[in-house]
Amino acid sequence: MVPQPADNAAQRPSAALPPAMAEIKSQSVDEVISEMNRMPLFMTTLDETDGEGGMNVALEALKALAYEGTRAEVADNFRQQGNECARAKQWTDAKEFYDKAIAALKAPPQVLDPVDGPKVVEVEVDEAAEAKREREIEEACYVNRALCNLEKKNYRSCIHDCAQTLRLNPTNIKALYRSSLVCLSLNKLSEALDACTRGLILDPTNTSLKSLSTKISAQQTHLNSVAKARREREERASAEKNALALALKSRGILIRNTGEAPDLEDAAVKLENVLDPSSTLSFPVILLYPVHSQSDFIKAFSEKEKLEQHIDYIFPLPWDKDGEYTPDGVEAYMETTAGGLIKAGKKMALGKILGSGKTDVMDGLVRMNIVPKHKASRWIEEYKRRKSG
């Protein structure tokens, strides 16, 4: 019989872990993840520390790389990162990269310390070609940042970036399109049309500009229609106001406003035909029962109607337990313009009462005091006493 190997014979010896791996083996999963998050290659969130409150040397070195090279190279690096974010519709991040690219182009050339700095390698640069490249990158950054601001609805910033783009290149179609689009969003139609037209002169077949031109025209038509409707409303309101004023003046009816008009909702002094001063007038009328502190409201009391017609309909009053208010048992009084009282005939048309010139329509409302005949004298005395007091 072949002897079986012992259990520990199946275990083969392994080499000792490298020091770094041994250190990781002694850490928890969370500690390993935290450590990896400080390494630029594995970062999921930005950790600028070394885990002990110090500087993250690896990260700082990576950042420094972004600023190595000529201004054009540095700016173009940021521009490309901005373009990647823009393609992903990460507008805020894209804008920040374009900001950095533009700042890099405007920064003075770096001067390295010959003693402490790294060894400087002289490189011949074609200044004209470099300047041309810088200008192209700057133009691209401004027009792309304009897109970011447009998407974020930062309209003023978008217009500024488009203007900067056109300063560098007056024929930049994207800048003309985006500035026109912003102006359309702000209803600045003349500016929108100007930018769009300039773009179409440069590129007559540009479908985006042609579509935008159609939208501008449609918006202009809509705004013209809205403005026309508003003018017509204002003109009609003015004509109605003038017709009403003429109707009141021709009838000798006085109007007084105290600035403390009650809320009458849609009740108002009106003409039957609002543009015809000769048509029938109607008035909101409140019937006051001062002896009992009650009232009734008549929304439209025609100038041709008489008080008796309304009280015949209103009486008997539900709260009049003693039956004091009957068509024949009451009298009507109205205040005069001088502060006194006149008796208003129940059989007289309202238009004639108001046209007498002794009373007026105050704050768009006619007021009539309805008093039982047998209490009228006492009520009048109390009224005079209140007025004199």
From TrEMBL:
GO biological process, one term: protein folding
Keywords for the protein's UniProt record, in alphabetical order: Repeat, TPR repeat
Residues of the Cns1/TTC4 wheel domain: 275-383
One Pfam family recorded for the sequence: Wheel
A GO molecular function held by the record: Hsp70 protein binding
InterPro entries, A to Z: Csn1/TTC4_wheel (IPR044059), TPR-like_helical_dom_sf (IPR011990), TPR_rpt (IPR019734)
GO cellular component term of the entry, any: cytosol
Alphabetical list of CDD domains matching this protein: CTWD_TTC4
Transmembrane segment boundaries: none
Family membership noted in the UniProt record: Belongs to the TTC4 family.
Protein name: TPR repeat protein-like protein
Species for this entry: Zopfia rhizophila CBS 207.26
